[in-house]
């Protein structure tokens, strides 16, 4: 704005505007915290289910791979192959719980409960999960013809308290190995501790 002063000169008149402080007000900060905590409360249970689902799916894939390895070992070597639970990673155990780990290797017909020589695969297991086999099956045996002796077996894999995230593996007498969803009863029994 231009103005003249008493001396006949031209002067510049300035208007001073008040400065506005930059940043957030206390009210805005509280609203952001409330919205963020609400979103977090909604997301955390979903995240937990996703983590459990991933853990169970990973265990299912590892056990499927071990079963396929045992079957392939029997076919390619022309010898009987065995998959068994192993709590110590050295020797087969007589347990229907597999979460402590398992072994794959060959066996002789006169010693069908233990491996003949060192295992070809050792898996450390999943101690945070529950992995059970049905029908009292503590050994899965494959013949060189690829058949699996004994009855059809179902493995149920879950984490305690999460029946809806349970998965299964089915092994038929013909040696067919397939991932599956367990029945509701199998899932509930597994999630309650096996």
TrEMBL record:
- SUPFAM superfamilies named among the record's database cross-references: Pili subunits (SSF54523)
Pfam families with a match to the protein in the record: GspH
Say yes or no: keyword Cell inner membrane present: yes
One GO-annotated biological process of the protein: protein secretion by the type II secretion system
InterPro entries, A to Z: N_methyl_site, Pilin-like, T2SS_GspH
The family classification in the record reads: Belongs to the GSP H family.
Return the protein name.
Type II secretion system protein H
Species of provenance: Dyella telluris
